[in-house]
Amino acid sequence: MTAEGYRVLDDQLKQLKSVERPSVIAAISEAREHGDLSENAEYHAAKERQGWIEGSIADIEDKLSRAQVIDVSKLSGDQVKFGATVTVVDEDTEEEGRYQIVGEHEADVKAGKISIASPIARAMISKEVGDVVEVNTPGGVKAYEILKVEWK
């Protein structure tokens, strides 16, 4: 994953541990004070939320412990690799697109970040400026020309 992706996950983990977890513990405590737990909807909702928070914490901790962090700013070269920001042009519509190739959990198409496992990223890997890549899409095969490869 990229260093930015690692930072985002780490921030989420801190939020869950320092804000969300204490909040749900307080909600459970307050709901217990209302009496019979078997018919207490607030208690059951808080316990369900606690389970979700603890599951999220475990998931993020697992991802961070297994992460291989790559500092994209220290990479260079003409070939498209993980972390590269690639500018392409659709050969049919002449529409330009700019994408950074990131880890699967970092992907956000609206922000221009595509997963290394996506069809377009897989097609671009090891290609250079001027190369044309063909991508199978639900609407048929699309051809993109690589205009620029950047490392940010």
UniProtKB/TrEMBL annotation:
A Pfam family this chain is assigned to: GreA_GreB
GO terms for molecular function, please?
A: translation elongation factor activity
Concerning InterPro entries, the annotation shows:
GreA/GreB_C_sf (IPR036953), TF_GreA/GreB_CS (IPR018151), Tscrpt_elong_fac_GreA (IPR006359), Tscrpt_elong_fac_GreA/B (IPR028624), Tscrpt_elong_fac_GreA/B_C (IPR001437), Tscrpt_elong_fac_GreA/B_fam (IPR023459), Tscrpt_elong_fac_GreA/B_N (IPR022691), Tscrpt_elong_fac_GreA/B_N_sf (IPR036805)
Q: Which PROSITE patterns match?
A: GREAB_2 (PS00830)
Q: Which UniProt keywords apply?
A: DNA-binding, Elongation factor, Protein biosynthesis, Transcription, Transcription regulation
Q: Which residues form the Transcription elongation factor GreA/GreB C-terminal domain?
A: 77-150
Residue ranges occupied by any Transcription elongation factor GreA/GreB N-terminal domain in the UniProt entry = 1-69
Q: Which HAMAP family match?
A: GreA_GreB
The family annotation for this protein states:
Belongs to the GreA/GreB family.
What does this protein do, in the record's words?
Necessary for efficient RNA polymerase transcription elongation past template-encoded arresting sites. The arresting sites in DNA have the property of trapping a certain fraction of elongating RNA polymerases that pass through, resulting in locked ternary complexes. Cleavage of the nascent transcript by cleavage factors such as GreA or GreB allows the resumption of elongation from the new 3'terminus. GreA releases sequences of 2 to 3 nucleotides.
Q: What is this protein called?
A: Transcription elongation factor GreA
Which organism is this protein's natural source?
Brevundimonas kwangchunensis
Q: What is the lineage of its organism?
A: Bacteria, Pseudomonadati, Pseudomonadota, Alphaproteobacteria, Caulobacterales
